Amino acid sequence: MLQRATEIVFATDFSDSSHAVIPTVAQWVQNLDAKLTLLHVYDPRKTLYREAETLLRSFFAEADNYQHCDRVLISGDPTEGIAGYCERRPNVLLMLPPSDLTGLPRPWHRSLRARLIKRLTVPIWTVGRVNVGESAPPSSRHVGVWFSGPEEGMSHLHHAANYASQSGATLHLLHVVDEINEGSLLKPLLSSAPMGEEAADAWLSDIACLPDFDCRIEVHVAQGRISRELPQLLRRSGVNMLILNQQSAVQTTWLGPEINPVFRNCAISLVCVPYATKLEELHRQMAESAA
């Protein structure tokens, strides 16, 4: 799906984060040779149409030099506006920068990114964290794929492998085995994920040997707390673009869906792709509508 994206939808709120990811957006447009749409959803209760239009026209002025670039202004709820636009477009890559550069928590705030990742059946690029004064990390020649366990399937791996093959990147398969504690006795009942580093290495090595993938593949495994071990795996492997399943990217809290803090705290590019069952349901619905 990534390599077939013909339109990049850059949803912007004109924040510092939106400005910081402009070089990354430009690189994706060039790599995919895709049309660029700059999309802004404004609240008519707070902003006049002409004010929102002026902001949109002045944002990322260099994009007007692209062969195909549109600026789209929608009024209403940001989640509904962005989702409604993307759901009507085929072969879209949605780019969602974080809402601010500081990463400071906002009480009662529901994550726009998490809601869209959970809802949409298109790949979504975002970034875990952007530090003040720094640009967002660009797409990389070292692409990582995060595996939380065998249950999540391999649809995101196929997206990553196709992208790595076409871009000449090295593909890195990443997994962290949980710490051994009292709760470990329950894990075999809930998941078939490996319980040790050797088993995890063998599992991912078998995947790397599948004949479907035409790219260089490396396997990286650690054991311990994911929040501690994953950043170390990313540093050792050189990965700064990580492709993961939507289920891994989002967790549900009592306030609603939120970006998994394990990935939200990593200063790397993230590409969240729909899991297989969600795509199959979409295809079924399309077939029923056509009939």
Topology:
Blueprint: E1 7-11, H1 16-20, H2 22-32, E2 35-42, H3 49-58, E3 69-75, H4 78-87, E4 92-95, H5 112-119, E5 124-127, E6 142-146, H6 155-167, E7 170-177, H7 187-190, H8 197-208, E8 217-223, H9 226-237, E9 241-245, H10 246-249, E10 250-253, E11 256-259, H11 261-264, E12 269-273, H12 276-290
Parallel strand pairs: 1-2, 1-4, 2-3, 4-5, 6-7, 6-9, 7-8, 9-12
Antiparallel strand pairs: 5-12, 10-11
Helix pairs in contact: 4-5
Give the tags.
291 residues, alpha/beta, Rossmann fold, 2 domains, ten-stranded mixed β-sheet, two-stranded antiparallel sheet, 12 strands, 23% strand
Sequence stretches where pLDDT stays below 50 over 5 or more residues: 101-108, 278-288
Number of domains: 2
What best-fitting shape do the alpha-carbon axes yield? globular
What separation lies between the terminal Cα atoms? 25 Å
Radius of gyration (Å): 19 Å
Task: Let me know the largest β-sheet.
Answer: 10 strands, mixed
Q: What do the pLDDT scores average to?
A: 84
The class by helix and strand makeup works out as: alpha/beta
Task: Write up what this structure looks like.
The strands form 2 sheets. A 10-stranded mixed sheet has the order 3-2-1-4-5-12-9-6-7-8, sandwiched between helices. The chain is of the alpha/beta class. It is 37% helix and 23% strand. The protein is globular, with a radius of gyration of 19 Å.
Question: What does this entry show, briefly?
Answer:
With 291 residues, the protein is of the alpha/beta class.
